[in-house]
Structure formats: C-alpha cells, structure tokens
Design goal:
single chain; alpha/beta; 8-stranded mixed beta sheet; 34% helix; metal-binding
C-alpha cells in the first residue's frame, strides 16, 4: 500500500515541501513540490510543480507571509486545494512528515517526534538561531493541522556523529565542555548523506568504501571530508557559524574579533524572544557579516560575474577559504580521495567558482574540463574533470528532501 510523505525543508529565507508517494522500503517517487521564497525580502513568492510540470513560478503572494510558519500554511493549503493532485485530497491522506532540523545535538539518527523529543530540540535553538526555531514552529503546526500524520525529525548533524573524538573535541576545560555539550557537531549532513550515496553509485563503488572531499556551497557553505562513506571532518562546528563564510555569516574568525567590533556584543539582541536568546555577537557574525557585509548583496551570481574591487575581494576570499579546507582534508585523508565534489546552489551553478577553486588546488592532481564545467546539469552527478587528470572532479545536484524521504521509507519501524 502506498504512503504519502511530506518532506519539509525550512531555510532562513524559504520553505520547501516535496510530496512523495512511497511503497515501504522502496525508492520514493516525487509527485509535487512547492516552495515559498523571499521571506527576508518581500514580497514572498510561490513556485509550485506537480508531476514535473510547473503550475506556478515565482508567483507573488497576496497574503502576508512573514515567517516560516506562514509559508508552511500557504504551502499546505496549495497542496490540499489542488484537485489535480490526486494523492492529497485531504489532510488525513498525509501519512508521514519528515522535517529537516539543523541541530540535533547528540542524536545520531532521525527521531519520531514526541513531546520529549520536541522539548529536547527546543533547548538547542540557541545553537542554530537561523534555523531550528523556525523548523520547530512548522513541527508544531503539523502536530495541530495533521493530527493523523507521524512526524520525524531528520537532523543535519546526525551524519557527522562518526567524526573522531580528537577532531570533534575543542581544547577547553573537559568538565565544562561535557556539561554544556560543547563540541564540533557539523551540519549539512542530510546533503552530505545524499552526496555520498549518489557519488558512490556514479563511481561504481560501495558507499562504505568511498573517500570524498565534498563542498556544499550556498548562502550557508561548508566542506566535509568523507572517509569510507562516513564523515571524518567538517568545517562547521558547535554551530553552523564556524568554517566557510556565507551570504551573511562570517565563518571562522579570531574569537576575540567580535569584542573589538562593538562594545555591546555580550548583550542580548533586540530580536531575541522568550524562546530564543541571541546575543549581539551572534547577530553580527550570523546576520551582518559574510559577502553581504563586503559587497552589499547576498547574490553570489552578481559577485562572481563582477569586476568591481569589492566583488572580486569577496570572490577571492571565498575561493581561498574553500581551498584551505580542501588542502587540509586532502592531507587528513592521506591523499586517498576518490573525488572532489561540488554541490549546493552555488556549487552546482557557478562554473567560474568551480574553475577558480580547481585551478588553485591543481597541485593536488585536480583539473577541470572547461566544456564539461560549463555544461548544464542534466544528471544527479556529472563529471567535470579533465581526461587523464590524477583526481576526479564532480558536481552533484543534491536533494535533501529526497534524502529525508528515502531514509524514512527504509525505516520500517515508522510504518508499523
């Protein structure tokens, strides 16, 4: 008997829902996808695709959409009200909802959401202020609006539970670190799980034997060393702030920098709420930094294609930081690397970024085929490496919604 899964991905400026029809234990089949974008830059827009055909694209919403919860309400109404989406004629036909939750703390696998799970995740909101609280608001909405559906939390951090202790440990007082759960967790793990499986299949290797340096590059960006199919190291840390810079995130900086930046950094931000406490320091580094601080725009396409000095600075800085992680992970994997993999919105779309990065790490044996690099993505994984090069270079069209639905379809306990 087929089941219907909603796979919800709530980002800082958008919410996406993919609808899958699933036979338990089989590969999910997508029947629809709807996205509300522009939550931080009004007006919000709706894009809706049913059975591979675009029903609406970037349609401005007449209703006011201020939050991820508002966006979810619009998306659910769009799906249920569509009489041509035969799989969902009412809320009761949705069997399972899987939610992307950025920070899962010590959870090393997906969790069926109970009152206890929900309360535990609320305590982690401060560690992922741009994501967790908004995702949990949607979880709460699902519990109210879809009472017959089961809700599952899929964590961006769970893929990184395999990181060795000597890599995930911070050199601080061990008792304080244990008491407050202060260690490297890592994020973008749902994407990296998809990248690992898809790349291994492309290379004809067992996923448990593949070694990769994977780059998830978007408005939030990270790098990951994958050893024998498992996370060995990743650039993000206790929170998603560490590592590579992003659209509004600083990435790793001297820890004392923020205290020289402003005098009120230890105080709570005016945007803090009863449920979510954000200091001015966190607000500055998460929301007022990155390439927006350098260029005035969060659109990396504009940055990559401009000759303006401030744009070139942001581009070169990003390339430099990415290459630093590639070099570090290449050494950490002892040079045993099956492929360098680009993914994420920027990683998949910016051929000039890929060219610049691969050119800088050419000393490690990576090289790029310019024709392949400039070609349109038509497959899940495409080879853009130069023939005869010592190392492979690939692009992967990652799909976090599918990965969540797939993992839930294979968990038979969820369907008992």
């Amino acid at each position: 008997m087929k089941k219907i899964i909603l796979s919800i991905n709530a980002g800082s400026s958008s919410v996406k829902i993919s609808v899958y029809s699933v036979d338990v234990g089989q590969r999910p089949v997508q029947v629809a996808e709807a996205t509300v974008s522009g939550l931080t830059a009004a007006p919000a827009t709706l894009t809706y695709v049913r059975a591979g055909k675009t029903v609406s694209k970037d349609k401005e919403l007449s209703t006011k959409v201020h939050s991820q919860r508002d966006a979810f309400d619009v998306l659910l109404s769009t799906l249920v009200a569509d009489h041509e989406l035969a799989q969902i004629s009412s809320d009761d036909e949705i069997d399972l909802v899987c939610h992307r939750i950025v920070h899962g703390g010590d959870y090393d696998k997906s969790q069926l959401i109970s009152d206890e799970t929900y309360e535990h995740l609320e305590k982690l909101n401060d560690l992922a202020p741009l994501h967790n609280a908004s995702s949990l608001a949607i979880v709460k909405a699902c519990l109210l609006k879809l009472p017959t559906a089961r809700n599952v939390a899929c964590f961006d951090s769970q893929f990184h539970a395999s990181i060795p202790e000597h890599i995930r440990t911070y050199p601080i007082n061990r008792d304080i670190a244990r008491k407050n759960h202060l260690r490297k967790y890592g994020f973008h793990g749902i994407s990296y799980a998809f990248i690992t499986r898809s790349t291994a299949e492309f290379l004809g290797k067992d996923p448990d034997k593949v070694n990769l340096i994977a780059l998830h590059l978007g408005s939030g960006a990270s790098a990951c060393a994958i050893k024998a199919g498992k996370s060995w190291d990743t650039s993000m840390g206790l929170t998603p702030l560490a590592g590579l810079p992003g659209a509004t995130r600083s990435g790793s900086v001297d820890p004392s920098l923020v205290f020289h930046y402003a005098s009120d950094v230890g105080k709570l931000s005016p945007s803090s709420t009863k449920e979510l406490h954000i200091s001015r320091a966190e607000e500055i580094l998460n929301k007022e930094s990155g390439w927006k601080a350098l260029t005035g725009t969060t659109n990396f396409g504009i940055i990559a294609n401009s000759d303006e000095p401030e744009m070139k600075l942001a581009f070169d800085l990003f390339v430099d930081r990415i290459c630093g992680f590639i070099g570090s992970y290449y050494v950490s994997l002892h040079g045993q690397v099956d492929a360098l993999v680009f993914a994420g919105g920027i990683g998949e779309k910016s051929d000039c970024l890929r060219h610049a990065v691969v050119d800088q790490v050419a000393c490690l044996g990576f090289d790029i085929d310019e024709t392949a690099n400039g070609a349109k993505m038509e497959k899940v994984v495409q080879d853009i490496g130069k023939a005869g090069a010592r190392q492979r270079v690939l692009v992967c069209s990652t799909d976090e919604q599918f990965e969540m639905a797939r993992s839930c379809s294979e968990d038979r306990e969820l369907w008992l």
